[in-house]
Amino acid sequence: MTTAISKGNKAAMGSIDAALKPRLRLRTRSEYAGWILSILVGVGILTSVLTNSNFKWEIVGKYFFAETILRGLMLTIFLTVASMTLGTLLGLALAIMRASHVKPVSMAAGLYITLFRGTPVLVQLIFWFNISALYPNLSIGIPFTDISTAIDVNTIMGPITAALVGLTLNQAAYMAEIIRGGFSAVGKGQLEAADSLGMSASMRMRKVIIPQAMPSIIPATGNQFIGMFKETSLVSVLGVAELLQSTQLIYARTFETIPLLIVASLWYLVMTLLLSYPQSKLEQKYSRATARLPRKSKPVVLTDPEGIAR
Amino acid sequence: MNTDGTILAQKIRKSFGPKTVLKDIDLEIASGEICCIIGPSGSGKSTILRCINGLETVDSGVLKVNGEDFGYYETDKAYHALPPKRLAQQRTRVGMVFQSFNLFPNMTARENVMSGPVLVKRADKKESAKRAQELLTSVGLGAFGDRYPAELSGGQQQRVAIARSLAMDPDIMLFDEPTSALDPEKVGEVLTVMKELAKKGMTMVVVTHEMGFAREVADSLIFMDDGYVVERGDAREVLANPQESRTQSFLEKVL
User: Fold this and answer.
1) Which residue of B120, B158, B168, B176 is the best one to mutate when testing the A interface, meaning the one whose CB has the most A CBs within 10 A?
2) Interface TM-score (ipTM) > 0.85
3) pTM to 2 decimal places
4) Which residues of B136-145 are buried (b: 16+ CB within 10 A; e: fewer)?
């Protein structure tokens, strides 16, 4: 019966079998209006950017690969990588502490996280830079003995160290929360299975919890990495000659503020785009791995419908 | 007297907050005995099983597994919790199979089976792999060692989970509704493995809704309701001729 009907339709509505006709999307008037409006605004902005001589694109070009800028970029990359690495390690330690059954330990980690997430990074950076006002001398030694060495805090807490310490300690708090979130995503049944096999708490953490928490931790860490790359611009207030400070040093001399800020912005943009590619790959990879159901689905076999017109 | 593979419980009580889930439970399971626990959900049958493996702690009462006080040691005045290491050691002698399999998804089937011996008992890797292969073969999955749990069906996962527990050479195996999460077609393959195990003289405590399995394999049967052991006795006798009215009405509904 059905074939008879479809054959009837075929005769009535053109030569293609109705079952094989493509289904087309509806374009509304507002969609066309959206296109036109966006194009107009885009063209407007572009002409303004290209024709306004105050942008001084030749200056942008001249400084884009300047040695000072590249050196600043290198320092920015170093600060990002170093503070992310150290911050992640410290964050892991904090997350494990937070999950501890020993109350004071988990509370200490909780307090740390609250303090460092609850105050602005900029304030923290300036604070670490000026820590010598609080503790002029750092003495390392064995408690209750005379064995110790005193270190002048001012000499070790230079701008770069302060930047590194500030960014790391702040990042650790955020990473701790991300890692803790990953831990709690691991099902209770997994913990019970590990327990019933007689695994110790540390074994369970290493072999069961952490590997399974990775899929949710790694993409979020990638995001933090990209965020950190831009966050390093804050340390320019400490006089660290990273990317932003390097441009500031130049425009303090030449007064070409906007072109040099464009140089810095373009570099931040380039680096962010470069980082977001592996980031999206990571996200794809790990979003697949979290699927608990069989990953392989049976491929749908497409066969020719009955009575196809040849 | 050899007490390996025995379970003894006297007046076990357990509450979750205001709700008492186990009320003066007495159990006596001999070595090599196959005991099925049946009852409606919320009757405490899973809880008693989880207590025997230390996944839950009992509030009071005596619980001896393999002849030892489980998870605690007795002094003149109280039971004191054992240090984690000792508890873990006791747990290695009691295998647990869960309703939701709980295989480690980051390990292959073989690695899952090897996880206990290698990670906990620090056994030789090569030997454990060989043993794991034997165990996988014994549950009919010899060719599936390199598959990840996500690539196995529910029935296959549950058989791997049984092999994983067996790899620890436990004296007692506990099954917490091992076939409840399976589609009806796959129930048989898991029950077959369990029947094989029963023939080998393993002490087994099985919380189940499979009355057919209970009738065919079990030595003793316990019917629980509302935290009490309502009736217990020879499996076939209780199933054929239940004495308590509560047991009768439950069996009428499930059979």
Assistant:
1) B120
2) yes
3) 0.79
4) bebbbbeebb
